[in-house]
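Re: weekly structure request thread

Next one in the queue (112 aa):
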Amino acid sequence: MAIVRKKLSELEPVKLPKGYRRPTEAQIQKWKEEDGDRDFEFSDSARFVRNVNVRALRERLGLTQEEFARRYRVPLRSVQEWEQGRKHPAPGTMTLLLAISRKPKALADALS
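Done, posted below.
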C-alpha cells in the first residue's frame, strides 16, 4: 500500500457537526486559566508543550539534582543537560515533569 501525501491546500476542509461553534479566543484563554495552562508555550517545530523549567521545579522542591533524579527515576545526566539548556526533555518526559510540578508528592509516592 502506497502512502499518499498531499499539500495542506489540496485537502478537503473538515466538516463540523451541525450547530458546532468554534470557541472564541476569550473562551480558550478562560479554559487555559481554569486548567492552570495559561503559561504553556507551544513549539511550532516540535509540536509539544515545552514549559517546565526543571531547575526552578527542582529548587522549589528543595532537592539536589541527584535527589531529584533518584526520586523521579530520571537519569542524573538528563537533569543536568536540561538545566544547562543543552537538551530538552522528550514529550513523554515533559508530561512527567508537568505532573511533578503539579503533584510532586503524589508522583514521588507512586514511583516509590
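The chain has a mean pLDDT of 82. Helices lie at 25-35, 54-60, 65-72, 76-83, 91-102, 104-111.
Next request, please.
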